[in-house]
Batch of 3 targets.
Target 1
Amino acid sequence: MKFGGTSVGDASCIARTARIIAEAARGGNCVAVVSAMSGVTNRLVEAAKQAGAGEKEQGTAVLAALRTQHEEALKSLVRDEAARKSIEEEMDEVFGEGGRLFEGTALLRELTPRTLDAISSLGERLSAPLVAGAVRELGLQSEAVDATEVIITDAFHGGAEPLMDVTREECEVRLRPMLEKGIVPIVTGFIGATTEGKLTTLGRGGSDYSATILGAAMNADEVIIWTDVDGVLTADPRLVPDARTIPVISYREAAELAFFGAKVLHPKTLKPVMQAAIPVWIRNSFAPERQGTLITPAGRSAGGGVKALTAIQDVALISVGGPGIVGLPDVVGRTFSTTAELRANVLLISKSSSQNDICFIVSATDAPRTVEALRKEFAQDLAHEKVEHITIDSNIAIVAVVGENMRGTPGVAGRTFNALGRENVNLIAIAQGSSESNISFVVEEKAMKTALITAHREFGLGAAGT
Ligand code: ASP
Ligand code: MG
């Protein structure tokens, strides 16, 4: 089970989370993975950047605020003084380390990716002992486990990938015996370590990924991602008021949705469990009586083929082109080796056959360094006007129509674009992968909402019974 930031946001949320864990642990073996309290990682990252600029004050202030926040929660969660003391000591160690990290960073005026990982991991290392304490309060044995002991990764700081074989071994050594003794492990999400023991993180929002990595490593019967919404919805309810929860969805559909910004799942979440076909639930920790969404290998077919819509707006369209690139056979290759080197996540690619222009989309945070790297890569070509422009447009959004059964269902694209045309939504770029489970298009940011509402209505997604 994984609990996100809002599910451990304060004492009452942690108490609710602890009850869910305890109930599951009484019924069988349960490993819990927890995020930092909501907002904590953002504050740490922000302060880390300040420290990198030579100012440690914000770091000191954030640590002080976190201390108050966590100690307050601790007070209301754990009644016994001795029990509180031991958790306080665990937290003290984390605060001490945090202080040294901010200080060292400010002193050197340099924030390396490795230090950023260490600083951003502090939140999870504070929340896990709290949750374990809350579970013990309910009469079970429980211990916080630092994921650096169990999730072993490569050394790519800020977006590490698990080494599954070693991870599996470590889980057998560290977690399995705990389960056998009836101890509920509460593992820090988001964090891992290299084989040499250097702390890494799996990327922002990575606790979901931690959960499925552990689920796969331990051959779990199921993974449950507890969050603050009812499951996977047909669209973002803030934009499409009649969006509803989808009861069953396939891995592929869920992955498409996650990839395109449906905030419930980290894009890599399903990767570890796909091969072993471990089902994944998305459920609401604030309303555990609701069923949530079940993600399975096959999903369940929906009549019209379209299952859900998603949109992502914190993205930028980068275009590399000009008439001169016609004769340059390696532009595509060089463009995408550049993005690969940066590990920039390319969300959509579109290229017309005229070869005049390649455009692709990356997240807004990746965009500046991507453009910078491309300008470096193509410096010669720009100088000789073989490549005319490398431009960036941030006022755009991607909207995606997702559904596994769109494959072989003709007319989905036609219906989508017809409906959008009627509403005067202008399309900037279009892409459909040959898997046919996703049709994506780029619109101006301000047209995104209309595009979503229009497509949602067109495919009757708000109606019951799909
Ligand atoms: N705390 C981390 C973050 O905010 C990981 C997570 O919440 O999944 O990115
Ligand atoms: Mg999250």
Note: The longest strand covers residues 308-321.
Target 2
Amino acid sequence: MASSLIPPGSTIGILGGGQLGRMTALAAARLGYRSLIYSPESDSIAGQVSDHVQGSYDDHGALARFAAQVDVITYEFENVPEATVASCEQHKPVRPGRRPIHFAQHRLREKEFFRKSGLGTADYQPVGSEADLARATAFPGILKTCTEGYDGKGQARVESTAELEAAWERLGRRDCILESLVDFDCEVSAIVARGLDGRTRCFPIGRNEHRDGILRTTTVPSGLRPRTLAEAERLGVQLANSLELAGLVALEMFVTRDGRVLANEMAPRPHNSGHWTIDACATSQFEQLVRAICGLPLGPVDVLVPSRMENLIGEEANDWLRYVSDPTARLHLYGKATARPGRKMGHVTYVLKSDASPSRS
Ligand code: AMP
């Protein structure tokens, strides 16, 4: 382990220039690391707070030059092409590596991996041909594209074979997965760090609310029964071990009305539902990522104060004055120039006294 230690003063390379890269770079800087962002945009929001090189994900020469300037590489989104990661791996360690994105980039592979790892899921079936349409029985269900869907995009609710056929046409007859609709009581997520030595640590389970497929709030403590929380944590840790990753993995889950916990989706990177940790946990998820990939001991994950994180989507971020005026609110803006509908512009974490609800004035 000592030989793989990457000490403060080293440089972390980050593939991707969005808010997750930005917050990782901020946490890295706090521990004395430099960060170098690699992204196709000329001015990324992560590049506002760290060094930045522009390059496309298939420019292997540019990737090699980037790798030469850093000591370890991570990625801030799971849709970075596998070939990009493979290219970087020839020069420097990439953590969490290629394997987690291989599964996380493709919903069908991901579900199969969950099942193989012993995690329960909704019933599902592949939809990639006319024959699959005829075989489909998972109704009511949600049809999702296998690749490139996020925040509810590339999804359609379907009640029958006829609706399924129409939805599949609309989605461009692409490879899809039909999942049966889960009658859930709530949604939760486990964010698990796994170090180079294989040790794991799970952040306290957050309870998530989505609207139109987009995460709106995460609340910790979640108020769920200890048995449910223990099961959610067990599944998250099992997944991290099964992936054998060094870094972070977030597992989004459904808690069904009959008390089961089912895996929905994973992301091998910091996750929106872990933003609360910056203001309300002993170690933030971003610092934990830095610790995990640099071979440092994982940090404590005690909840310092109850909290609720709310995403600021589109024009909501224009209300920044309200949030900075509220003593219970911790405002984070991502530096994005234009607010488009559905675009995550920032978040606010309300730190709550145990007996208080957040100020809404
Ligand atoms: P996903 O992109 O898979 O994370 O889906 C976005 C959101 O849609 C989830 O967080 C749920 O709120 C809802 N959703 C997705 N799949 C299902 C399902 N099989 N049953 C019920 N709700 C779902």
Note: The mean pLDDT is 95.
Target 3
Amino acid sequence: MCGIVGYTGPKEAYPIIIKGLKRLEYRGYDSTGVALLNHGLKVYKKKGRVAELEDNIVGKDLHAHIGIGHTRWATHGEPSDRNAHPHVSASGKLAIIHNGIIENYAQLKQELVKKGYSFTSDTDTEVLLNFIEEIKKNNKCDLEEAVRVALKRVVGAYVILLIDEDDPETIIAARKGSPLVIGIGKGEHFLGSDASPMLEYTKEVVYVNDYELAIVKPDELILKNLGNEKITPYVQKLDVELAAIEKGGYDHFMLKEIFEQPQTIYDCLRGRLDAIAGTITMSGIQEYADQIMDANRIVMIACGTSWHAGLVAEYIFEELARINVEVEYASEFRYRNPVINKGDVIIAISQSGETADTLVAIENAKSKGAIVLGVVNVVGSSIARTSHGGAYTHAGPEIGVASTKAFTAQLAVLTMIALKIGYEKDILQRNRYMHLLNGLYEIPEKVAWTLKQNESIKAIAEKYKDARDFLYLGRGYNFPVALEGALKLKEISYIHAEGYPAAEMKHGPIALVDENLPVVFVATKDSYHHKVVSNIQEIKARKGKVIAVITEGDDSTAAMCDDVIIVPEADEILAPMLSVIPLQLLAYYIGVAKEYDVDKPRNLAKSVTVE
Ligand code: F6R
């Protein structure tokens, strides 16, 4: 959460920073600010989006070759002009931007207040900055040394970028627990929460690790640990193209990303699944195949949509590989004292690869001897780097705050792992294995077919957009899809929605049903279909409105429902990759009909790097 950008070099810094902030706005959009150094420090900041700041500072002196910029997701202090970053130190010489939380800020603040400091904001960030300034003054050291000393006392997570009037070419940056990428240009350096602000300038990047400090000048990048020892930067090549982070003619990133799914699922399977030879090649999994096959249990840890992918995978792994699977919210797992036995395998699922709770849960599990495999979208992200092995989902940058294409790519990867392990373990017979491999291979085409229902889903969205609540029901593999459909609707349209296993409805939620309640059934043809049909009847008997996602040709179910959305026939193990698509579109079109900003829903941020 919070996006940070920095630049030092011969170009004008402001346009690079503003463009970079627009790309990072998905990380938070409560306020925006920039600090520029050119014969003194200039700071411009404002509550609201990047575009509002941009409009507000037209005509101001924006000339500089070094600067830092921030787009905020508020943690300490309400979204306001005065709580917006950058913050300036008491002397007026230092400016800081920060992504993360300083947990012991109250204690540090008390110490500073005793020394006569006062504060203009409610943020932990301003406290940290003045703490650094106090050390610089007391120890008569440079900013780099002051940051190093200060960070040894700091408890919490951070990426910080600082500039100093007394050293007008240098950005000091440090990280613990939040992401920081440094792009290397010719006589210039770029800094960002991810690589998107630097894509058109360089493809060479360094991912800074926890407890590292970077001294960044136009033609020099020095990395050190907190013990002041130099570290050789590991330069990596980016393989993301600019087009991947642009809207490409769609009204919203969310719609673009929903429509990309035939391609992203295909990209995920490409080079791995060979449906003719009957092979699945995944080197980051193969290395640990014996441990997975011998595992007493697999624990999936994740949050939000990724947790839903874990729930689907639970059904798939237990069915295909007969391994006991538990699915845990990372935030609960990390604070319990979970029993981890030797031989347990953890699968951490994350789009961003930066979710703080998932990251800490992984560290806990690793410290207890578990093998951790990451199913991650963002290449080079913290979770990808800290896992022992795993597989990337290759869905490309997901910018819409609501996760869509990452979910189906996670399902594709997790299904491939389950198929591979089930087959190698001899649980899965050749016929069934080949049938599923072929079925998986056909999924991109079937997703493309499903997307053709776009217009009819839009019409259904119009019809129900004013409902106050929604219920989403499904069974078996489609139960987590119901949860995901409800989550998408809540996020994008701010309509209260609940997902439930269809059979559980009778144990409580059925009391909600009346003629005003739309109930979305995920009712594709599977082994539970006749049971789900009974549940549809139960809702209809109580005058509920039924919208159902059904399999092509299922006319008898269609006849019972108020509205239906059709998906192609598929094996029940693979069906969630299809049945979720209409639910993504339904949420999208309801959000659009209500004129909400579907790419940046209120209160949310894409990458949850605070707990
Ligand atoms: C929902 C959504 C969130 C994320 C969750 C985990 O649309 O985007 O629920 O799924 O914050 O994020 P990752 O997958 O990045 O760990």
Note: Residues 303-306, 350-352, 355, 358, 402-403, 487, 491, 608 surround fructose -6-phosphate (CB under 6 Å).
